[in-house]
Amino acid sequence: MQQQLRNFMTSNVYKVTDMQSVQEAAALMSEHNIGSLPVVDQNGTMVGIITDRDITLRTTAQGEAAQTPVSQVMTAQQVVQGTPEMDAHEAAQLMAQQQIRRLPIVENGQIVGMVALGDLAVDNQLGNEAGQALSNISNPSDPQK
User: What whole-number distance in Å separates Cα of residue 84 and Cα of residue 114?
Assistant: First the structure.
């Protein structure tokens, strides 16, 4: 039975614009206890993603100021995305292959949801795949800068 991501995704997605500061992004993450934010342009089109790890490695560790624009720290190229119609099994495999824990869900260029590995793990039918994805995600990889 095919299970679409729209059944698992969080649809109330917090996001930042590419012109907001890293400090603003970090404050939003802290306030809502989340580890990543989709980055949108002024039209609301997703242009990247910023994670707590991006902030740590690309700003704090480099001694950069907190007022650095998100656009200088975010991952912009080849952001892995899903669609609301994507099958949950396919999403789990994609997350494992790409070693990501959170998958932005995009429709017509607009962010409509987020699926975390934990969202998939709570479903009995997907628990094993989520565990396998976590195992693959946890394997060391070369850090991307």
Answer: 10
CA gap 22, 16 in Å, rounded: 10
Residue 83 structure tokens: 């669609």
- Contact call for residues 76 and 47 (beta carbons, < 8 A): yes
pLDDT digits (tens, 9 = 90+) for 8-41: 899 999 999 999 999 999 999 999 999 999 999 9
Q: What sign has the CA pseudo-torsion 26, 29, 33, 37?
A: negative
* Residues 20, 21, 23, 25, CA torsion sign: positive
Residue 80 pLDDT > 70 = yes
CATH, domain 5-138, list 3.40.390.10, 3.10.580.10, 3.30.1330.40, 3.40.50.1240: 3.10.580.10
Q: Which residue has the tokens 């306030």?
A: 31
Predicted structure pTM score: 0.78
Rg (alpha carbons) of the chain, rounded to whole number: 15
